[in-house]
Structure formats: structure tokens, C-alpha cells
């Protein structure tokens, strides 16, 4: 049970609730029994399919019910092959399946089974409208841009519609500009970015960092961008200078100090001055971020050990 | 500007482990067939039983539940045709519940109760040409299922039944820019799936694939000022992530990168002082799922009234020792 707040109720309310729950439980059990006993390899009972939809709208995690529906879909496909206007009938049937998954997803956008069923139905659809599906993804992501199920689904659809990577880069830039604090967009970007020229990328991430230095998302992305060997030295030096300025405005922001350490190690390697600066930064981080003291201690030790091996 | 997504622990939060209450909670949970919560969750019963039984065994109270009934139930849930095991009677076999059943039987030392060869055949039948695994015959691919497959087969000592190298290549292809792992190639990192992939690599002895310190840093950044851990950046803390993150950090030898005392305070605050059991966050409804992961996390933190737990399998360490299994762990 995630995020379900415990509510205090009077004894009377509780009794009433229990009665209602008993009714629901009985209905659930009757429905399940009827559906599961009706399962046959060569035919199905439309009434059971209706009950099945009702149960799934209440709880889309009952995986066996989705399996039952897939069996029914396969039966419908078989029948449609024998019939002259079979394809049309099949399409109507499958559109209803899609509607059901939509209802389930609106109530529970994190239901693995509903997402899978939707994709499975579309794959079996003789006239699947992938473009519409893709637009739906865009719309859902504008409602909740952290739903990883929807991002994953978008990636599946992408292969079907033939959208170009440039289009997707633009989409991720738009999402990031709407909301810098969107780890999912940054992640998505890391999977499609052309990593040959990182000058502009560094500018984009820097813009995000300076808009909201307390937000962690862009800092994780920065670390990754800096890990590429083709980032220009002058770009790194310029960024380090800007971070020094930002730190004056936000002296208690740990992310700026961490990023300074990455850059110093990256640009100056192990000059004495840089080692001392990094050691000082980690000492400062231990004060700023007590919880991760053990991490900073290990980092500090690595800096010192590395410099000693070099000597 | 960002306001950090976190909670404030209530002032009157419990600070000690309410052991007896938790035992009571788990024992009562399955007792009444007419209990609403219990009745409505039959579609995840087998995993639910694994959570409850493991929680009890970690506090040495497994004998409180009727062993023979549990074993009979598992037997009835094995599908004669495919060999897979379902969540409950008349439901379909699935890899998630197959692993849960095998874990329970290992703890009871009663693998003889089921058709082991059937299980092996079932797991192997779900491997795809790219090395990935589906959860059942209907085709959903996810790294959760890669973990379930190798965990099940290792407990049964039958890893020879699958193409391990291909399975590893698939998990490796799910590695991300932040060092984490997602459910499929290019999917966003998520602490639950990080656990599945780290657990998978620990079982297959291939932790060399991990960008250890990049990932461990991302993991230790899951700890919020409340002491709790979240599953992805900017999300709320939740007791179950205490397990997914902590077990991964333990396997990577980086448990000391978070504050144990702050996490302990958070987990203890998620106990329900009336009913017993743990919830995801203080003040929410308790359930067996958060109870086992709360207790298992406290075990990793060295709580002395809980038995040592194995971070890879989330089973009592002595059971893993009895099976003579040594999943890889970094120092």
C-alpha cells in the first residue's frame, strides 16, 4: 500500500465501512469465480468479459484477468479471419480494449499490466494508429513528466512511428525548459544526445544549474557530460569560474562544491594546489552534508592517495 | 526554486522496535479469510506470503504459522503443464510468484514438495533471444524478471538451464548515464530496478560491470533530511526503498556512504503503534510488504533483535549458508 493515509473513524463509521467492504469482497469473489471458471480454449462468455472489465477498472493489477482478455483477443482475431467484414469488427473490438486500458491508466498511471496490455493490443491491431498513440504519450507526459512507464512506452512507440532523434532532442529541450527539475527529461536526453559536440550541452545544463542550484537533477547530468573526454578545456575553465561566482551567492549549496571538485580534478589533475583545494572542498562538504560524511571522507582519501602514488 | 520533496517525522514517532506487535500483525494478517485487505489481494498472495513468512523468520517466529498449510498451498499453485507457480489457486503462473514460492520452500528446507524440474523448465522457457526474460508467456520484458530468473535457478542450483552470458549482456545494456539501471535498455534508473540488476550481477558474479562509485553516489543521494530514502531524485521517501537502496549499497561495499542512524530513526517512525507492521511513511496504513523490507533494512543496519539477512536474496543469511550459496559482494 503506497501513500494510503490512515484515517481515524468512530465505531459506528467503522461498522458501516466493514459492511460495505464485505459486500465488495463477496462481489469480487463471485466475479473472479465466474470469469475463471468460464475460461475455455475455443470460446468465451461476453458477460464474463464485461465483469472482467469492471474488476480491472477497480484494480488493474489482477494480472490473470489481463491474460484472460488476451486469450479472448486471440479468439476474436481467429474469428475475424473467417469473416468477410471481420477486420472491421475486430478493429471495433480492439478499440474497446484500448479504451479500457485508458480508463485503468487514468485511475492508476503506474499499472505495469495496463501499459503492457495496451501495447500488446496495438501490436495485434490491423490498423494500429501509432501516431495517435505517440501524441497521447506527449499529452500524458505534460500531465506527469516523471512517469517512467510513459517514457518507456514512448520509446516503444518511437520505433513504430519513425520519429527522428532531432525531433526527440527538441522534445527533451522543451520539457527541460518547462521544468528544469525533471530528472526523467535529463535521463531521456542522455540516451539520445549526439555526444560529438558538447559545448552547447554544457551551456544548457549550466543555465539550469544557475536557475536553481538546489535542484539535484541537472547536477547529475553535469557529472555525466563532464565525464566525456571531448569537453573543451576552456569550456571547463569557464564553468569553474562561473561556479566560484555562484558559490558566493549560494555559499551553503553543496552541489556547487561537489562540481568544483569534479572540475578541479578533471582540469588540473594532481597539481599541489588542486589537491589542497579538493581536500578543502571535501572538508567543507562534510560540514554541509553530514549524512554523507562517509562518502566525502572516501573521496578525500582517494585524492590524497592518488597524489601520493603519482609522486 | 526547488523545495525538497520530503516529509517531517511526527514528534511522537516510535523510536524503539515494536517486535511483538509486528509478529501479531503478520500472524493476524492471513488468519481471517473474510478480512477485506487479505481477500482483495489474492492476486499477489504468493509474494505476500513470502513477505510475511520472511518477516517472521527474521525475528525467529516462523513457527507461529502453519507450515504444512503453506506448503500444500504452494503445491496447489504449481501449474502442471508449464511448471510455473501462480499467486494463488486458479490464477496464472508468473515468474514473480515462482521466485516467492521457491524462496519460501528454501526457508522451510522443503524444495522436495514441488516439481523442481518443472520450475526450471518454466524459467528457461521465458528467456528471450536477446537474453532478457519475460514475466510470463504474454511477453512483458523487465529487468525484474532477469533477477527473478537467476535468483530462482540459483536457489535450485540449475543455472545451467539458461544462457547466462546473454542474460548478463541484457542487464548490462540497461545501464544508464548515472550508473543506475532501469527496467529495459534506455529506461530511467530506479532504486527498485537497481536492486534487481545489482542482485542479478551479484548472483552471476559480474559486479565488475557496475560503475561502482558513480552508482553508489547516486544511491547515497537517495537519503533525504528526514533520514528516509527515495527511489528516484525528487521523490518522497518510502520504507521499501530502505531495502532496495541499502541492499544495493551493501553489495557494493558502500553502506557507510549514508547515515545509518538517520535511516534507522526514519524506519522506526514508520511503525504502526496500534496495529503493528510498517507503512511506507509515518501515518499511512501498514502492510506486510513494508514490514518485511523495514525489518530487513534494520537487519542490514545491524539491529540486534533481527537475524542477519542476505542482501542479494532478502532471505535469512543462515538459509543462504545452508544452501552453500555465496553471491558476490564487494568489500
TrEMBL record, chain A:
Domain of life: Eukaryota
Signal sequence residues: none
Keywords, in A-Z order: Prenyltransferase, Repeat, Transferase
PROSITE patterns: PFTA (PS51147)
GO biological process: prenylation
Gene Ontology cellular component annotations, sorted alphabetically: Rab-protein geranylgeranyltransferase complex
Pfam families: PPTA
InterPro entries: Prenyl_trans_a
Catalytic function, reaction form: geranylgeranyl diphosphate + L-cysteinyl-[protein] = S-geranylgeranyl-L-cysteinyl-[protein] + diphosphate
Coiled coil stretches, renumbered: none
EC category name: transferase
Gene Ontology terms for molecular function: Rab geranylgeranyltransferase activity
Listed EC numbers: 2.5.1.60
The protein's role, per its UniProt record: Catalyzes the transfer of a geranyl-geranyl moiety from geranyl-geranyl pyrophosphate to cysteines occuring in specific C-terminal amino acid sequences.
Family according to the record: Belongs to the protein prenyltransferase subunit alpha family.
Name under which the protein is recorded: Geranylgeranyl transferase type-2 subunit alpha
Organism: Ignelater luminosus
Lineage, highest ranks first: Eukaryota, Metazoa, Ecdysozoa, Arthropoda, Hexapoda
From TrEMBL, chain B:
Record text on cofactor binding: Binds 1 zinc ion per subunit.
Pfam families reported for this sequence: Prenyltrans
Function, as annotated: Catalyzes the transfer of a geranylgeranyl moiety from geranylgeranyl diphosphate to both cysteines of proteins with the C-terminal sequence -XXCC, -XCXC and -CCXX.
A GO CC term attached to the entry: Rab-protein geranylgeranyltransferase complex
Keyword vocabulary terms for this entry: Metal-binding, Phosphoprotein, Prenyltransferase, Repeat, Transferase, Zinc
Domain Prenyltransferase alpha-alpha toroid: 17-315
Subunit relationships: Heterotrimer composed of RABGGTA, RABGGTB and CHM; within this trimer, RABGGTA and RABGGTB form the catalytic component B, while CHM (component A) mediates peptide substrate binding. The Rab GGTase dimer (RGGT) interacts with CHM (component A) prior to Rab protein binding; the association is stabilized by geranylgeranyl pyrophosphate (GGpp). The CHM:RGGT:Rab complex is destabilized by GGpp. Interaction of RABGGTB with prenylated PTP4A2 precludes its association with RABGGTA and inhibits enzyme activity. Interacts with CHODL.
Descriptive protein name: Geranylgeranyl transferase type-2 subunit beta
EC numbers for this chain: 2.5.1.60
Molecular function GO labels: metal ion binding; Rab geranylgeranyltransferase activity
Family: Belongs to the protein prenyltransferase subunit beta family.
UniProt-listed SUPFAM superfamilies: Terpenoid cyclases/Protein prenyltransferases
Repeat is among the record's keywords: yes
Catalytic activity: geranylgeranyl diphosphate + L-cysteinyl-[protein] = S-geranylgeranyl-L-cysteinyl-[protein] + diphosphate
Named cofactor requirement(s): Zn(2+)
Superkingdom classification of source: Eukaryota
